């Protein structure tokens, strides 16, 4: 019954009862683990719904019902309790839902998960797992890195110390530490300049740009596939009295020069004007989408790949579609424009 309601009314799975608990909170409290698994399958983000006191289902998984005034994540709680098995479960889940950034979150003392692990008992297995997913050069409120804390531990493991030192060296080399004065004195990066130019600091503006640009890209691509006038349906080696032409709207009788079936009816100056304008609008729209998404890089890698493939497909099609004689005019015009 619970799963039927969740499927039919998904918003109900996030609502809290009078006591401040969501359906997943209650399922965990009652140890209805089959329901918990089913809810996670339906929506993995349900495990992060905040209940009374800021408690999420992750805190129940960690075996702790503390409050979030300590600014502890479920991962902080797990490592403080030394529960290696529970940590492995959370570690695997966070990797699968691409939320490993949580490992870099800090508590009220400025400690990340790795700070806590290296300061207590030697949980070497957890440390080795975290090294590749945590900023080892991050400092807590005592201005200590994980390596410095680990070296103060009398039982520190030499292999782990070497790994931490190597990872910290790489991190410092790739991301140098800057003071606030140094950071604000720097020139704007290309990403920041693009963000200001395209207005992408405002989410509503970004959404509007993406929607409008996507519609224009679709329209121009469709216009290239079905240009004005359509295509010749028949082939003719002389000037026929009647030649059947397929247009975008209907079939009509046209009198024209020799042609081949499948070739464009539009030619000469009209084709030149249409092709250039359509290409310019298509390129401008692709550029707008590209610029709007650039501030979200590298999360938008697949968007860039798709745009590149779409652009290649478009220009290859245009090159094949336009007759060689007309393509020469287009190339001459584009060369002229680029020279000026």
TrEMBL record:
<feature type="domain" description="PGG">
    <location>
        <begin position="202"/>
        <end position="315"/>
    </location>
</feature>
<protein>
    <recommendedName>
        <fullName>PGG domain-containing protein</fullName>
    </recommendedName>
</protein>
<keyword id="KW-0812">Transmembrane</keyword>
<dbReference type="InterPro" id="IPR036770">
    <property type="entry name" value="Ankyrin_rpt-contain_sf"/>
</dbReference>
<dbReference type="Pfam" id="PF12796">
    <property type="entry name" value="Ank_2"/>
</dbReference>
<feature type="transmembrane region" description="Helical">
    <location>
        <begin position="302"/>
        <end position="322"/>
    </location>
</feature>
<dbReference type="InterPro" id="IPR002110">
    <property type="entry name" value="Ankyrin_rpt"/>
</dbReference>
<dbReference type="Pfam" id="PF13962">
    <property type="entry name" value="PGG"/>
</dbReference>
<keyword id="KW-0472">Membrane</keyword>
<keyword id="KW-1133">Transmembrane helix</keyword>
<feature type="transmembrane region" description="Helical">
    <location>
        <begin position="264"/>
        <end position="290"/>
    </location>
</feature>
<dbReference type="InterPro" id="IPR026961">
    <property type="entry name" value="PGG_dom"/>
</dbReference>
